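Show me any protein, keeping tokens residue-aligned.
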Amino acid sequence: MAATPDGADFEQLVEYIKSNRGFDFTGYKRPSLQRRFEKRMQAARVESFSDYRAFLEHHPDEFIDLFNTILINVTAFFRDGSTWDYLRNEVIPRIVDESAGQPGIRVWSTGCATGEEAYSLAMSFAETMPADAFRERVKIYATDVDEEALSDGRHGIYPASRLDNVPDDLKDRYFERIEQRYAVKPELRRSVIFGRHDVVQDPPISRIDLLTSRNTLMYFTPDAQTRILANFHFALREGGFLFLGKSEMMLSRSSLFVPVDLKRRVFQKVSRGETFRPIPRNRLPEPPASGLDMMMREVGFESGPIAQLIVDRNGTLSLANMQARTLFNLAQRDVGKPLKDPEVSYKPVELRSQIDRAYAERHSISLRDVEWHHPSGDLRVIDVQVAPLIGGDGQLVGVGISFVDVTRYKRLQDAVEHSKRDVEVAYEELQSTVEELETTNEELQSTNEELETMNEELQSTNEELETINDELNLRTDELNHTNLFLESILGSLDAGVVVLDAELRVTAWNDGAYELWGVRADEVQGQHFMNLDIGLPVEKLQGKLRKLLAGDAVDQPIVLEATSRRGRSITCRIRISPLSGGDAGPRGLILFMEADS
């Protein structure tokens, strides 16, 4: 490595990553952050931060290795055993007792890495509560910015060495042995919901009873820590508990939290008289009263949950929020340029023609289920809406374009369609998707009701399928009773009765027919009547049968000389009736055969 890195170059590199990949490391402590960058630069054989920025521009795959290096995932089951003993014996029973009148218990594990801490919390609550109450009432949100670590946590499979801190009785109750690895049992797994969340940038999850953030704050600057702790204060219920790591003293934040056990880093939320709001990432000067609404609109647009673009009447890209810049790889330099320049003007959909249409029709244009191959290679499904923007004077001033990623919802639909063939696999896929949606719901409260509705629709679909199955079973029973009824009627007739379908194949053959011709029903079922060798000259009936199927009126009985099953010559009287099929004509024929004595 070269000598001491240039501070300006390093800050430019951090800003470049923020604007191009949406990862904001500005709140991280500079010495530790620089060490993580330098480690990757050594592996890439790059000497300076400016050269490493150029390296990232030409090698996009390097971002994955860089983020994995920066996001240090150090965790373990029941890490620091004495603190967990205190949590299990003192804090969790108190939470369970005080939550008796609440709809549920909500726990948030931030910086969860591969999930060991979240599952430790789940086991602790499961040991404190009855099994049914635990399944119904406890939700544990496990969040991190590292998608790869979150994926490992969702699978819940760990090497045997990682379970050294787990007592044997808990290991037997909550894990399954798979060769040299252990998998979390589904009953415990379903209580933990994994999702991506950045404690610096994203809004906090709300109404939390217990929030754990162990050795996470230490990576951030004091200013970032203050913002994060304010968000934690907002996230917790009145009297909620905060559980920190042993390296985090937090003594200077006593106005927000009071120590419950300082040695074990357990704190409790201090109630405030006013309604508290999370502190925004960038502290702005207090605007005058007349500009407050404008600031709120700008902040709301920038941090909105969906990707949005604003294009003015001249076709210039005026605004692009953070979601849009991240999704479509837009840089700040693209804002203020004609929309036709960046790739988003024609991918995932050709926007310029839709903008012209919105102007012409003066109402929103919606495009549903647009398939788009993301630069990462993933196939995504996007809903696009182009809405004209009308000024106070009634003139068109531009358009607003929103992009809603409905990929998860489409996957849910596919999972339901295939659930009958592989219920267990489909359930896991749905569970994973629902968990992702629930995490997003908690982060983005404005979309909570819509995503909950999706879950209800899935439940409704399952109920409809169950209703259809019940109806089919009922119809099957009715059909079986009808068949038994018809068989009893046919069996009671002395005459031989044969029922033919429209192709002259035998569908029914009673005992009277057996007595005449000596052939059992199972021998002729489905056989063509004209191919039967039964002592009756069936070929002499063919013309009459065809005419009756064509709609001719019923004529007099047919008398034929035949040979009975005993070899006696008999005179057989045959009456033929059409089997009504409504306006479509006969759907078959019924033959009544009697031997004259």
